[in-house]
Amino acid sequence: MTATISAPPLEDVAPRLRPVEVFTDEELSLLTYGPGAVVTPYFSTLASKGIEIAQRSAYRGLVARGIVDPEADPGPGPVRLKLREDILTLVTLRQAATCLVAVARTLVDAQDFWYAHVVDELVVLEEVTVDGLHRFALGFTRDLPALLVGAALHADATDGTGETVSIDAMSEQEAPAQLLEVLGQAHLRADVVVISAAEDNEAGTRARTVSRPELIGVFSGPDGCWSVTSAPGSGAVAIPERVEGLRLRIRSLADQATGTDS
To answer: Could you tell me which of 30, 75, 162, 168 has the fewest CB atoms within 10 Å of its CB?
Structure first.
């Protein structure tokens, strides 16, 4: 995904981001401990034998890029390798996140995944392509509302029209054909969910909550905006949205993730 699909933030000053590094699925599997909630599109398709081969090649690549020092003792802690200082900081912040904002984005001809790992005043941004490349950047939590709007709302979005539609929770119930047609006109679909971290487990690492949080689908583009809210056991509701109202709703999700919502 490129910046051309991102709606401009409400602030006059754009969020400040510091690009860090790009890792493959298999490289990231060596740098982190535990699968977490982030997708690994390529790594997840590998059989056991393929995983070993992929990780061996990934290790050689990390050493060649100066990210891993094969001669040094990694020291205490769950990370099994001696990492370059900036990468160790990145990995530590990512694992220590108290909240995760996850966005699955779909365009007409592309798809990717966007994550914001919230850690106190910092946020670790992670964009994942369908072929398993993870692009990282560091930013500030105060900028998360603007960043989330840019990730989830199309730059050329216009106000939606029509009536609110309630969709039954039963799996055999199909959404109305007219609604599917309207949603299908969206240039960008973004499924947004906020996941809170659970307490530290016995291994000393944070696990994600198992319960299913509310999922909000944002359908936006030049032909209008809709939101589809889905909660476990309660079905879904599709609502035509005004652009500014949808901006505020997306920003409220970011405030929820940072604990600043009213």
So the answer is: 75
